[in-house]
Fold this sequence. Notes:
- The protein is α/β, with parallel strands linked by helices and 170 residues long.
- The protein has helices at residues 33-45, 84-95, 113-119, 131-139, 156-169, and strands at 3-5, 8-10, 15-16, 29-32, 50-54, 72-77, 101-106, 123-125.
- Helices cover 32% and strands 19% of the residues.
- Strand 1 and strand 2 (8-10) form a beta hairpin.
Amino acid sequence: xxxxxxxxxxxDVWAPVEDGAELPASGPVLVSLARFKTEHGxxxxxxxxxxxxxxxxxxxxxxxxxxxxxxxxxxxFPKYTDxxxxxxxxxxxxxxxxxxxxxxxxQVLRDQLRLMIRSGFDAMVIDEADAEAIYDISAHEFSExxxxxxxxxxxxxxxxxxxxxxxxxx
Length: 170
């Protein structure tokens, strides 16, 4: 399945390392939250960029103290009907100020791409043959939004308020 980063197919350079398995000599590593919590000192001091995979039931606050040193957070969609990873992404971006990559894995559907982008995801693994074209369509499918999100796009309400203020100022 292709990895999309900012709408383009990209090479996945991250090596997923199972709990208890030996780390590779170099290169970026992706570990579980459990492993990160027990080994964060050695992981962050090592010769690796570190990524952490959260289950959709994990609280992003558990890694908040280290977010400035974590390069990747992977959030899982075990079922397309389970949107907890969208909330996790929002929390990471808006509450914790995370600036690194947030990647969606699991049952990532084209219908959810725009919402994922608005929620703070900048990468996703998607099972689509023409992933870039799907992304282009999905990312621009809606031009206006009623609710605010991590992408900080102006909502329809804010745009209407500005238009009213602009007319009043004339």
